[in-house]
Amino acid sequence: MSGLKSSVLLPLYIYPLPKAWDPLYSAIESHPTLDFTIIINPNSGPGKTALPDEDYSREIVRLNQYPNVYLVGYVRVDWCKRDLEKVCLDIDKYAAWGKHGNGEFAMKGIFFDESPNQFKEKRKVFMDAADERVKNADGLGGWRLTIHNPGTVPDTEYANPGPDLTTVFETEYKHFKDPEVQQRLTNLLRYDRDRCSYMVLSVPKSDVPDLVRELKRRAKYIYVSESKRGWYEKFGEGWDRFIEAVASDC
Questions:
Q1: Where would I find the H helices in 35-78?
Q2: Per-residue pLDDT for the chain (250 aa), expressed as one digit of tens each?
Q3: How far apart are the first and last CA of the chain?
Q4: DSSP 232
Q5: What is the DSSP letter of 120?
Q6: What does the alpha-carbon distance between residue 211 and residue 216 come to, in Å, rounded to a whole number?
């Protein structure tokens, strides 16, 4: 028995046509004690308009009504090759959403995709500046969560002070089982469970329950997909199985 509670960290890269997000709403409503941190990504970032389009606006307002939902905006950093000013403009645009109306469009943090794992001082300075921009962004709500996604364990220098959360694994299940990957996770990981997330993809149906139990011991935030491709562009037939496994107490 794990006895540990984990949250769903969902990259929601599905365009919100009517009913397209219904599997998500069903999971949220059926599991009111399970927390969902949902990455909102209208156009590889916030897009060019002041607010997201009509479809995204409708669904963001709806999601923000659930007490067990925590929305974060997607920002790509391209391993720090993107201009920091453009990264900060994306952060500011998400923050500006929260100033409209009564805060119904508010994000509560930022998910930095393609963040670096190999240490260079200038990359560390870049990511620290981006994190600070989030923490000081008027219009972002909640904890103003900072999430880095290097997709692997970053070099130890990034942990001081580091973001609130780091995705230390994001790839297919066959790579998760690789002894070298497990050794890197063991030797380099400098974050405790509450600051780790895993995204494990292309998982065989029969392995999902045991994998989720293992991930719950390792990380507070997890995502597992049985799909062979397009993992973030559809819920897939394994969605309900994953949610039930995360929600389980054992």
A1: 54-63
A2: 447 899 999 999 999 999 999 999 999 999 999 999 999 999 999 999 999 999 999 999 999 999 999 999 999 999 999 999 999 999 999 999 999 999 999 999 999 999 999 999 999 999 999 999 999 999 999 999 999 999 999 999 998 899 999 999 999 999 999 999 999 888 888 889 999 999 999 999 999 999 999 999 999 999 999 999 999 999 998 999 999 999 997 5
A3: 5
A4: T
A5: -
A6: 9
d(CA 246, CA 250): 9
Residue located via tokens 């190999």: 118
| Amino acid found at 167 | T
Nearest of 73, 71, 74, 75 to residue 36 by alpha carbon: 71
- Interatomic CA distance for residues 142 and 159, integer angstroms: 22
DSSP sequence for 191-227:
S-GGGEEEEEES--GGGHHHHHHHHHHH-SEEEE---
Q: Where are the alpha helices (DSSP H) in the chain?
A: 22-30, 54-63, 84-97, 121-135, 173-176, 179-188, 208-218, 239-247
- Return the closest-CA partner of residue 146 out of 103, 191, 105: 191
Contacts of 229 by beta carbon, 8 Å cutoff, 6+ apart: 202
Residue type, 2: S
